[in-house]
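I had to read the description of the data format several times before I understood it. The format is easy to grasp once an entry is in front of the reader. For illustration, here is how one protein appears when written out as sequence plus structure tokens:
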Amino acid sequence: MRWVIVAILILACGGFVALGGYAGFEFWRVGNVSTEMEAERLAPPPPVEAPPTPPECEAGLAAFGAKDYEGTTSLLEVCLDAVPDHAEARLARGRANAALGRYERADLDLSRGLALRPDVVEGWEALVYARSQNGDDRGAVTAADRWLAVQPGAARAIRMRADARYRMGELAEARDDAARACALGDADACELEKRMKAARKSQ
């Protein structure tokens, strides 16, 4: 009888040991899984590869440099379909469209391009010009103000703003701008100032 009791105790102890071992294994396994999941959560996302730049981008910019504005717009159409935020291409196509008299298209491209590269003063000049030619003098003044925020004291910006203000009937502000731009050495502003003075005397 005694050996039966001893056997039962041995079996019971073995069961506890086995159960304890299994519980320990499960704890280790769950802990490892949680650690791996946390590491995956905190790991940086894999880098997103940028789409390849099509050859039309470089060709379109070369066409713009050669003043082939039709070629510029055709080539950069393909370029910007593939890389919509190619700032240089966006600004070049906007300036080409402004030169071709497509002022609304120019405005769209230039506005988007300048949001990406606000330091390109040629883009601001083209935007002010496009808006002025399209009858949007208020928009031209706004663009000139933003141009001056990038390039304070830019005589062309002040003179082009004077033009837009004069057309809107803001005569005092226009005269001040024209005089300021003339003092900064813009010859066209000096001519504008003379015309404004002559118009004022004739009234």
Remarks:
- Residues 2-42 form the longest helix (41 residues).
- The CA atoms of residues 128 and 143 lie 6 Å apart.
- Residues 1-25 have pLDDT under 50 and may be disordered.
